């Protein structure tokens, strides 16, 4: 039993296809209308059939009213942290505090280098992310007071222009898998955002990964519950059960409530480009999971 | 024409919306270097795109190289797509050398250039290696250059689409000097100086008191600005002020007065003409009078050098390279486009609605395409009689979705991306054929543009002969700009998908045919087979619609179909008809070559035909073999009632193969079994096919009507009837 006690969050992970150009916009609007809490988009700028994720996110923020938005996750090696910080703050202000920062250290280094980005080793990319987070928080003015400049090994800004300050405390959600990244998530993150399809051993991998995060948090003097655990999930609605998240809605409800109970997952982000499925997820599955988790928490917490 | 520099982003957004409402053409977004708390301008621009409808956006990007040029290029394309082609990019020297700005332009243009299949690699300031190009933007995003030094002016002359004066209220003398630099550089680079639009920023106050430059009445503003336009070559005037009254008065009074003054002084308004860049013009085809494109179509026309050309050159099954694609949005524009096409009688002319033509060659090599995809209205005219008006460019999935809320439908075909224009002028063999007949059987009237540019209406009351011809051979007679249909009630349907063993292919086909014939009319079934695959049993995919939402009826109807052979897989769903049709997203077409398709209509799946079909399928000559049920209501209509006359058939047979010669040879062997063909699934152009499509008297009558309505054979891209071959 692991539960970090966060309220539950249900979101969608929508493919940012550029053809037809408005498809991701329409899906995001459908997700808002269906009642989801969050829409999120992967970010692979070398992928020529996708929209630019940040542009898309900004446009969708403008076309929606309530739903929160995030990269899932933004590609740090191709996005300068100072520009990112200002962009996030700008959009957070315009949207009334609906923006979160999902970010990752990057992969696909050949493609990144082809685009003119800097090629880093896995280890360096973790260090760069750590620096970037510090720089971003500096620009937001939420950390150190005087910030005449930022001189890191990876990022260097002379006379950081502070602000604008975001409209709300933007969560930094980190897409991480390896021990170093997970400990970093524990030290600095507000949230953790891995994808279930990447977990070789399935959900049970989460136990050990959680431990690295908890460990990183404690060593930095934080509480493990400071880090919200989220998960990108994919699945199929079917009349008969055919495995994890593959079956009737009742099974989904069991499986998702189980992810909360067993691994402390409190954010469930559905990877789907099917408005019908999004509607079912938001309208039937999410409320039932909320109810179930509330009931279980009521029973189990003394 | 406002700059939103020193105001907060939320106010900038409000101001942009106001400008949009006031009819301003463009808003310029630019960093305020003084303000410490400065917002990210790209984010603001993307937000504003979502708040506005018409307003063009010119976004100044000043944070290169922090913002990588490659990522910027993708962002530019995205924002152009999301805003529906309203994006402009402004670059300047902000901590970049002039050469570096040149490199950024190269990257942005290179990323948009999908006519080049090779990945993008660049040297110079921002080396890229093997970057995939794309996506295709909504339009050729104009790149502006902002700056005053001789080098930047030279770059503007060489590469830019627009030049932006670097400071407010530039004096006319200074503007002329800048222009000289730009013009010289343009000419040296082989460009027409008019390719580069000149933009100035002005500031002032509109008031009654009239004294200094741009401080005064509307009159004075016009007097002050007019020389900039007439002598300074200015095409864009940007107003920079936070005075709300001035913003308002400028749009309402100064702009119209200025425009009027310009027209008075310069009767032919050449500034309105967009002059394509020299590198775009260089790709023009000989023999097309590009400069004679009617004004109404000039902005939306696509030429081989345009960035959007790769998105419109080809159709679903056919790669093409037309010399120009004219995008008509109204009947008047169709008339204009046709007049332009008729100036080029020797070039191929294609009429395109949604580009899914198989027989219809809605693209060509070197010719003209009239594209109707924007004429895609779907409108209920009369709810009581269920009359709906459809534009030719509407896709059938959108039609189904629009009719669903009324509980109505129209059987079309099996694919949602197919257009109204091509299908509703030919036949329409769809999911509800046996119950409701062909699509054309519910057509009540059409409005058409004829070869001579006149517009006529054809229906049971008016121009009956034309109305008869349009229903089956419409492509030969003109361009239908509007269709009126009487829809019928269609609710949820039952949809069965079976994969059935077809090892004994002939036996299976025969049994399936007999089963369908014995079924009530509310059942329509399509079967698909491919060539044998190694280590896999022969199987057929059988897709069957039952026009009922009653589970018992559906099971009742589907059971015999499921019994045709051992089932490998089965799925039965009850769904809205519109959901069945929503089977494609739709994006641009990029086919490799051009397959051969053949069609045959047949009354019964006889043992002889079944054996011949088995032979064909197993030969590997065709990769796709399909039989659809027709008959039922299709056969209720007398053969002479429409130009689609092959009414007795119970089945429509189709095959696709890569090699026309082999496909034709194989198909000719099957021919003895057929009784005509459905032209929409036929690519063979041998003259005998005309007789197959239009049996006996039908062909004679069509040829006579062709001589009457299109004597010069303007419309010839789809089963061409030659008007001179009149019957004796
Ligand atoms: C994937 C696919 C599935 C199909 N399924 C079916 C099916 O189930 N049932 C069926 O009946 N057919 C089907 N078809 C055939 C289809 O109906 C025809 O190819 C039809 O012409 C496509 O219409 P379009 O408007 O998309 O084509 P376009 O390529 O735009 O036009 C094809 C031709 O139609 C003529 N035309 C187009 N618009 C007009 C107009 N406004 N006025 C006069 N002539 C015009 C022109 O000659 C043009 O060359 C299918 C085709 C494809 C590619």
Describe what you observe in this structure:
The complex is a heterodimer of chains A (302) and B (728). Chain A has helices spanning 23-34, 53-63, 81-94, 109-114, 122-139, 179-188, 205-219, 249-263, 275-300, and strands spanning 9-13, 38-41, 68-71, 74-75, 99-104, 149-151, 156-158, 172-174, 191-192, 228-233, 236-237, 246-247, 265-271. With 302 residues, chain A is an alpha/beta fold. Chain A has a single domain, classed as Alpha-Beta Barrel (TIM Barrel), CATH 3.20.20. In chain A, strand 8, helix 6 (179-188) and strand 9 (191-192) form a beta-alpha-beta unit. In chain A, helix 1 (23-34) crosses helix 2 (53-63) and helix 5 (122-139) packs parallel to helix 6. The mean pLDDT of chain A is 93. Chain B folds into 3 domains: 2-265, TIM Barrel (Alpha-Beta Barrel); 283-371, Uridine Diphospho-n-acetylenolpyruvylglucosamine Reductase, domain 2 (2-Layer Sandwich), CATH 3.30.43; 492-693, Vanillyl-alcohol Oxidase, Chain A, domain 3 (3-Layer(aba) Sandwich). Helices cover 34% and strands 21% of the residues of chain B. Chain B is built from 24 helices and 29 strands. Chain B has an 8-stranded parallel beta sheet with strand order 1-2-3-4-7-8-9-12. In chain B, a hairpin with a 5-residue loop joins strand 5 and strand 6 (128-131). Chain B starts with a strand and ends in a 19-residue tail after the last helix. The model of chain B is unreliable at 1-6 (pLDDT under 50). The complex binds flavin-adenine dinucleotide.
